[in-house]
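Could you please review the protein record set out just below?
***
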Amino acid sequence: MEVRLKAPDYASPVLSLLRIVSALLFIEHGTMKLFGFPMGGHTVELMSLAGLAGVLETVGGLLLLVGLFTRVVAFILSGEMAFAYFMAHFPKSFWPAVNGGDAAILFCFIFLYFAAAGGGSWSIDRLIRRRI
């Protein structure tokens, strides 16, 4: 006999909150690269690897924020964060607390979770799916 457990009613809204907060934090990384905001300082060249990362982080973060194409965007951003970790952080040290790669690892696995779970109840994806 198979026992199925139903997810609590608050699981999907909490998933949406995690997606929204993660997206807001992620957008900040992209806008710092592209516009020097909020920190100020230098920006990167758009046609560079860091420029591509800035575009992915800003545009992908905005798409995640509203929950549009959540699974595909999250999968791409998860890969970007894995690439960023091994390209920029891992060569400095094996330990994430030492190499500054904690955020990259967390973003990678949070986005991988969104790729599997979707955007939650507060997403454009959910609205589109209900209308079909």
Observations:
- The mean pLDDT is 94.
- Helices lie at 11-35, 49-66, 70-89, 96-99, 102-117, 124-131.
- The longest helix spans residues 11-35.
- Residues 11-131 form one domain.
